[in-house]
Amino acid sequence: MTLHEDTQIRGAFDRLRAEEVDLAPDFGQMLLSAKDESGPMLVRLRRRRIVRWVSGGAALAAAAIGGLLLGGRRADARFEEAVAIWRSPVGWTSATDFLLDTPGSELMRRPVLTSPRVWVGVKDSGIPMPTRGEARTSERNRS
Amino acid sequence: MVTDLERLHEQSFGWALSCCAWDHHMAEDVLQATYVKVLSGAARHGGKSSFRTWLFSVIRRTALEHARQARSRAEGLRRWSGEVRRTAGAEPDDRVIRHEVAARLRAALSELPERQREALHLVFYEGLTIAEASSVMGVSVGTARTHYERGKRRLRSMLRERAMR
User: Fold this and answer.
1) pTM, rounded to two decimals
2) Do B11 and A27 meet the contact criterion of CB atoms below 8 Å apart?
3) Least crowded by CB within 10 Å, which of B57, B78, B121, B142?
């Protein structure tokens, strides 16, 4: 598009603007009625802002309380679990246990306090099994 | 702020008229509603753009809201009365003085797609740069430039056709 054509369009717009300038309503009057209208709108806006703040605060408080309760329960569960593991004689292992795993260390380890595999066969065969007390005495004698 | 509003009052009204398809009543309502928004603080100038650019974008948004409300009201009325009625703002108001050149331009602008009309009005009527116009229209500068160029081409051919009639 040439500059001349641009000028033509600009000229037409200038004419349009010149017409419409006279049609503009009085600013003072418009401002006055806008001020009258803005009063109730301000109140509405303020109310809306307060509601927003209060509901936001309530949501935050609820989230914080929920978080605290959930966190507390989780901590309790973890503590209970740790205590249960610590109480059971075979379940607990130290974090540094792997340092003792040297070649041949399995020979040094005390036998696990469960009925040995051999007793299962004996039990099935009908031979009377020693009671736990008897088994402990024989173990002590051996050592 | 009031002095800024007063300084831009006539320009704002021109922009409101364009946004309302030259419906005088609706343009007045839109401008009034815009002033209410500005004075009550419902619309706040963040300082990212110039006051004029910001004010024009508020006028544009308010006009869109009004048009939507008018459409739904007209739709309700049409359903209620059971006949098709012309929606408000389709024709320029009788109060708008009809100078030949201005009338021809107004008629041609009414036929342009909304974005193209907005771009041309903001640049030629309001004297905004394309970057400022893009900010008012809420589009990128590239998009505004495309609308501006296409609009100019179409407007030129439309004005030529109308002059020959």
Assistant:
1) 0.56
2) no
3) B142
